Amino acid sequence: MKNLKTIIAAGFAAVALIQGNALAQGTLLSNGNFNTGDLTSWWSWTADAANSGFPIATDTSFSSDGSPYLHLWNHGATGGDPAVGQSVNMLGGLQYAVSLGFRANNWGGGGVSITYYDASWANIGWEWATVYTGNGTDTGWQAFTTPTWTTPANAAHVDVKLTGWTWSDSYFDNVSVTVVPEPSSMALVGLGLAFLAVKRGRASLRRM
Question: What are the tens digits of pLDDT across the range 106-148?
Fold first, then answer.
């Protein structure tokens, strides 16, 4: 029984470590809600400042939750697709997803781009998810989550980028990166809970 307790205790310690790392990874994206009122922690890029941009909007009438949000716009036919991004440190082999709120009311589109880098900042892969394709009507605010992706084994840094293209008005808010717990971690949690249930059951029998 003592050996079992030791195994369970070690399992809980491992789960705590894994979950702690997961929570830390999930909070690495800074100012994802743009509530600073500017692009603090984000970098921005556009090839054509006259026809595209990325202001932080504060008009609460159009806000999803009464707070600032990103208005990423491209009012040109081709090229100049604006983007904002953020680089975060992420370990290899982690499963994660990017979640955000979006709204659009034009003809173009918007998406999330992921680029992986190793410790020396060499490009080692990428992911892409289309958030919306416009049809000229207002979508209203909607929630979006990418597929679950896995960082390459030798990953050390990840670029998270929001972009819009071809006569688009894209509104983004509450962007987050969430690490998905591995099934093995959850199995250890289940084993620990089962052990506690048996232990409590035996204690109850002894009191009868």
Answer: 899 999 999 999 999 999 999 999 999 999 999 999 999 999 9
User: Do 104 and 74 meet the contact criterion of CB atoms below 8 Å apart?
Assistant: no
State pTM to two decimals. Answer: 0.75
**Residue ranges with strand state E in 15-156:** 43-45, 52-53, 56-57, 69-74, 83-89, 95-104, 109-117, 123-133, 142-145, 149-150
Q: Supply the CATH number for residue 125's domain.
A: 2.60.120.260
Structural domain boundaries enclosing 93:
2-207
Angle at which helices 183-207 and 2-26 cross, to 10°: 140
Domain count along the chain: 1
In whole angstroms, what is the distance from residue 58 CA to residue 124 CA?
A: 37
